[in-house]
Amino acid sequence: MSRADGRALDQLRPVRILPDFITTAPGSVLIEWGGTRVICTASMEEKNAPFRIGTGKGWLTAEYDMLPASTDRRKSRSRGKVDGRSTEIQRLIGRSLRSVMDFEALGERSIYIDCDVIQADGGTRTASITGGYVALALACRRWVEAGILEKNPIREAVAAVSVGIVEDIPRLDLMYVEDSAAQVDMNVVLTASGRFIELQGTGEERPFSQEELDRLLALARKGAGELLELQRRTLEEVFRG
Hints:
alpha+beta
């Protein structure tokens, strides 16, 4: 069975990661994932989160926002007021990236991951995590090269992908028209070693079975594996060049 855009059920949309998209940030990417486009940047401050002061360990936090023209209907600017959805997503991004960090290696510093959606067609949170990791990896490598950090604080790579059930059929990487009609919707965050960081699964229109869950997780592993390989190639090309 093919989908509205002609993809197979286990096929990702075309994904492209453009590194160093923002030249003023030590780590940045534009991630293009089907019709979704997100700018992700990584930056650091030589100050710690208040609750970490004196621990010898730093912190990482994420911010997420959607630009006004990112959707068909203009979205109002947040102007300092973050809505519930954006708060949930930026917390997910932060948790996902913190889980692979060695904060003792970072020292008492703060890393900020900023994800700005310039066009949305489903999967903005998974694109933000996947692109945000590459921006973080670029920045950390450069901080080590510059002598700011003694060693790279990243323990392993992380990527995220959506899966879901539409018309009773499990499928990988839902675009907006599928996401909005999904009976079951799930976001899966995985490390390069194959361990789960987060599973966000919801029966939107009906419950789902263990067998369906297993099929969804198998699809997620396939998609995440392809994304992790794309991340690896992207970083390799930057530092090889």
